[in-house]
From TrEMBL:
The keyword Glycoprotein applies. The lineage of its organism: Eukaryota, Metazoa, Chordata, Craniata, Vertebrata. It catalyses: serotonin(in) + 2 H(+)(out) = serotonin(out) + 2 H(+)(in); dopamine(in) + 2 H(+)(out) = dopamine(out) + 2 H(+)(in). The gene is Slc18a1. This is VMAT1 protein. It comes from Balaeniceps rex. PANTHER family: CHROMAFFIN GRANULE AMINE TRANSPORTER, GH10249P. Belongs to the major facilitator superfamily. Vesicular transporter family. GO terms for molecular function: serotonin:sodium:chloride symporter activity; xenobiotic transmembrane transporter activity.
């Protein structure tokens, strides 16, 4: 009896390692944690820097004006003094000046009436100039993750082709854990910047290896679309939970608390990967993948990558600029800065899961075209909001539309490789992740500078118009042509409309069957 009981966990592990669903669970959890860390800092960093740098500097300078009041005792016997109480000038003797000091009159204070502070009773932050500069600094900090990821992605794509997807996934977990712990204990802008950049390296390993692994496991186009929709649901759930979770924990518990919770969840993810993926196992692709340079010259892949880039650039521009704009115009408390992104996150979660199935029926190109148009319209409506409730509609439409684009374009990337290139997916999902990261690199860095130059409403108009103008290009993905070699292989079922590639996979895995020889003759 005991030996049988001991064999049960090993049987479960063996079955799990052969299960496609558990691979999907691993990728889902990895994307969930990555995007929770991505968005949990959005409401924390602007207010944390404002509190530690601006308010900290002013509190150390504030007591200084009370000390120079003593030289007023040396005033001449008769001198004129201006009273801020009733805005009148009075003549006071030397003895009277001491009495004035006793009543709180200070002649050495700068000529600014105390009445200038009451207009901010509702919690609006002071320091307009500091907040304008902070737009740029926070934008660069947020963009550092995507910039590093942009550089690392091509190398990860090549690495997955050589050693498989399992080891890069586990490397991504280790780097993500270190980045999360560093966020928890960073107290300066420089350390936060380094932690964010480190996150970019870990995210590159996790996302490229995870999406490539799904595409290689789910070979049928319809099943792949559903699996990608579920995996992007993990991404959406991370975005959904991250910003509200960060703002509430920062407000009521402390700055380190949300990052420590994420670090604990990352450890659980690492344990799951050790059990399911066997990250010590090297499993290179049996077929040499299409070179990255060849994929980058494919116009259809570039159109799909551009849709991913520009649709996500809108929300990337909102991340550093919207909280600061809310602080300036709505006098929002800390917890509202993260809650403003909640409608976008919920609608993105709905959009990715809904259109993972519907996009295959209505046409992924049409789903993407409509999604990009809605993204542009939603961004144009954001500056019209007067309070946090006015952001519900625009942000909700924005998240839903981005969900439409992402859940359509990720499967299209795998479809284009199957249709026009070799069915090895590391490089093409490196390109997809590069496009995603370009949006999150250019968006925050350029967004902060544009807001400082021409204002937040103008920024929303610019990026909204860009999305609307790009949307018609998705029409070219309606019926992309296959290469001549692929036409010969796919013509057996339904030319140019084939949605399943199991036949191609069979030919690659078992090249010595009789059927494969016959089909090879037809191909010639």
């Amino acid at each position: 009896m005991p030996p049988v009981a001991e064999r049960v966990p090993w049987r479960w592990l063996a079955a799990g390692r052969a299960s496609r669903r558990l691979v999907l669970v691993v990728v889902f959890v990895a994307l969930l944690l990555d995007n929770m860390l991505l968005t949990v800092v959005v409401p924390i960093v602007p207010t944390f820097l404002y509190t530690t740098e601006y308010e900290g500097a002013n509190s150390s300078v504030a007591p200084a004006p009370t000390e120079p009041a003593l030289p007023a005792l040396k005033a001449p016997p008769f001198s004129s003094m201006f009273s801020y109480f009733d805005n009148t000038t009075v003549t006071a003797s030397g003895s009277a000046s001491a009495a004035e000091l006793a009543n709180g009159t200070e002649s050495s204070r700068p000529p600014q009436p105390p009445a200038s502070s009451p207009p901010l009773p509702s919690g609006c932050p002071e320091g307009e100039e500091y907040l304008a500069k902070e737009n740029v600094r926070v934008g660069l900090l947020f963009a550092s993750k995507a910039l590093i990821q942009l550089v690392v992605n091509p190398s990860v794509g090549l690495l997955t082709n050589r050693i498989g997807y399992h080891i890069p996934m586990f490397i991504g977990f280790i780097i993500m854990f270190l980045s999360t712990v560093m966020f928890a204990f960073s107290g300066t802008y420089t350390l936060l910047f380094i932690a964010r950049a480190l996150q970019g390296i870990g995210s590159s390993f996790s996302s490229v290896a995870g999406l490539g692994m799904l595409a290689s496991v789910y070979t049928d186009d319809f099943e792949r679309g559903n699996a990608m929709g579920i995996a992007l649901g993990g991404l959406a759930l991370g975005v959904l939970i991250g910003a509200p979770f960060g703002s509430v924990m920062y407000e009521f518990v402390g700055k380190s608390s949300p990052f420590l919770v994420l670090a604990f969840l990352a450890l659980l993810d690492g344990a799951l990967q050790l059990c399911i993926l066997q990250p010590s196992k090297i499993s290179p692709e049996s077929t040499k993948g299409t070179p990255l340079s060849t994929l980058l010259r494919d116009p259809y892949i570039l159109v799909a990558a551009g849709a991913l880039c520009f649709s996500n650039m809108g929300v990337a521009m909102l991340e550093p600029t919207l909280p600061i704009w809310m602080m300036q115009t709505m006098c929002s408390p800390k917890w509202q800065l993260g809650m403003a992104f909640l409608p976008a996150s919920i609608s993105y979660l709905i959009g990715t899961n809904l259109f993972g199935i519907l996009a295959n029926k209505m046409g992924r190109w049409l789903c993407s075209l409509i999604g990009m148009a809605v993204v542009g319209i939603s961004l144009l409506c954001v500056p019209l909001a007067k309070n946090i409730y006015g952001l519900i509609g625009p942000n909700g439409g924005l998240g839903f539309a981005i969900g439409m684009v992402d859940s359509s374009m990720m499967p299209i990337m795998g479809y284009l490789v199957d249709l026009r290139h070799t069915s090895v997916y590391g490089n093409v999902y490196a390109i997809a992740d590069v496009a995603f990261c370009m949006g999150f690199a250019i968006g925050p860095s350029a967004g902060g500078a544009i807001v400082r130059a021409i204002g937040f409403p103008s920024l929303m108009i610019i990026i909204g118009v860009i999305n609307i103008a790009y949307a018609p290009l998705c029409w070219y993905l309606r019926n992309p042509p296959a290469t001549e070699e692929k036409i010969a292989i796919l013509s057996q079922e339904c030319p140019m409309q084939t949605k399943s590639y199991t036949t191609q996979k069979t030919l690659r895995d078992f090249p010595l069957t009789d059927d494969s020889d016959v089909e090879a003759e037809y191909a010639e």
